[in-house]
Amino acid sequence: MTTPKQIVLAFGTRPEATKMAPVYRALAAQPGLRPLILSTGQQRQQLDGALAAFGLTPDQDLQVMTERQTLADLTGRIVPQAGKKLREMGADMVLVHGDTSTTFCVALSAFYEGVPVGHVEAGLRSGDLAEPFPEEANRRLTGVLSTLDFAPTVGAADNLRREGKAERGLFVTGQTAVDAVRMVAGRVPLRAGWQARLDAGQQLVTITMHRRENLPVMPDMARALADVARAHPELHFVYPVHLNPAVRDAVTPALGDLPNVELTDPLDYHDMAPLMAASRLLATDSGGLQEEGAALGVPVAVLRNVTERPEGLAAGVLKLAGNDEAQVRATLLELLGSPETLERMRRSVNPYGDGQAAGRIAQAVAWHFGLAERPQNWGTQRPQAALGSQVP
Ligand code: UD1
């Protein structure tokens, strides 16, 4: 028997772990491949929570996180250490995800080591290096180094074609976030306290906000959110606050003392997925929540000026709310004041996948090593109904 190919999944933040968990499972089920996890530990506590939610344990852990780390600090620690570990692990291929510092730095390390890189969630582009910062640069740079690119949508694959990427390494797979949300939503109950609120006729709104480029205006955005909460005492707003101390300092003054705003620690996926599914609206600057909202059929107000996820805008489930205080306030008040608009957004088709993305990725990796047929692309000609939110 030939030895299985060692496929190292490298990640370091919570969303990467969530979206790579289905890929790990699919690789483990693919004959001839052996998945291993290299954690950079970029986000110590948040990553550990996400790993635990999916029952994953890193095989190696670089433990790079420090308090208030700069991007240069992170880069300087990950690049040399990741290369050394990839060598020790006997990596035949490394898979990275999306656009974090971990993604780009591990891809660069692998390139230096001569290990081929597969990029999951490849091809997303906002067209603006300043927004999201530094993620737009991270994903473009990773695209320069990758051998296989797993684009979640046809549009993302087209972005890569425009940048000259060859057809041979390009796969349209769907978003693994859809796979992940399907593994959990509807199977795990909503926290009892939130369920009690729904039972009493209250509705929930989920907020998240953590982007670096939003930090300078985050106190203003928090003030806008506070005004929206004051205008809607019948709604209960749940905001799991990122552990970045700069985020906590920015949002606590405006939002810390309102009776209908619950600031919590970051939630693990088994609490977050049912919360999103039960929400009337998500207000967020996150990337992943845009896809999760679309997959669940829950409207999303995007607290950014541009998004690299235009399919959700076209489908109608996303609405850009910007990051300007007045615009955020006006957009949210308008959405929450119009049940017809929210209902229309909820009925949008999910443009991000059919829940089978991870299987296609595992098959494509096996194909690369001559162990399987090339997988069929997932295409937007087969749009998927959203799972159906659990909003009463
Ligand atoms: C990173 C990603 C971003 C992703 C986000 C998800 C980059 C450049 N950005 O941004 O794309 O959306 O993660 O969370 O990689 N901290 C803790 N404990 C934790 C996590 C963070 O204390 O578990 C603190 C640390 O002090 C750290 C700070 O938060 O210095 C910021 O975290 P970091 O991973 O550097 O960047 P993010 O802004 O979270």
Short description:
With 392 residues, the protein is an alpha/beta fold. The chain folds into 2 domains: 5-174 and 356-390, Glycogen Phosphorylase B (Rossmann fold), CATH 3.40.50; 191-346, Glycogen Phosphorylase B (Rossmann fold). The protein has helices at residues 14-28, 44-53, 71-89, 101-113, 135-145, 154-162, 176-184, 192-199, 218-231, 245-255, 269-277, 288-296, 310-315, 325-336, 339-346, 357-368; strands at 5-11, 33-39, 60-61, 93-97, 117-120, 148-151, 170-172, 203-208, 235-240, 261-264, 279-284, 300-302, 318-320, 349-350, 384-385.
Describe this structure in words.
By secondary structure, this protein is α/β, with parallel strands linked by helices. It has two domains: 5-174 and 356-390, 3-Layer(aba) Sandwich (Rossmann fold); 191-346, 3-Layer(aba) Sandwich (Rossmann fold), CATH 3.40.50.2000. Helix content is 45%, strand content 16%. Helix 1 (14-28) packs parallel to helix 2, helix 9 packs parallel to helix 10 and helix 9 (218-231) packs parallel to helix 14 (325-336). The longest helix has 19 residues, at 71-89. The model has no long low-confidence stretch (mean pLDDT 95). It binds uridine-diphosphate-N-acetylglucosamine. Uridine-diphosphate-N-acetylglucosamine is lined by residues 13-15, 42-46, 65, 67-69, 99-101, 134-135, 210, 212, 242-244.
Give the CATH superfamily of the largest domain. Answer: Glycogen Phosphorylase B
Question: How many H/I helical runs?
Answer: 16
Percentage of residues in helical conformation: 40-55%
* Distance, first to last CA: 55 Å
Structural class based on helices, strands and sheet pairing: alpha/beta
Read across the widest sheet, the strand sequence of neighbours is 3-2-1-4-5-6-7
Domains (count): 2
Could you report the average pLDDT, rounded to the nearest whole number?
95
Cα-based radius of gyration, to the nearest Å: 20 Å
Which CATH-level-2 architecture of the largest domain?
Answer: 3-Layer(aba) Sandwich
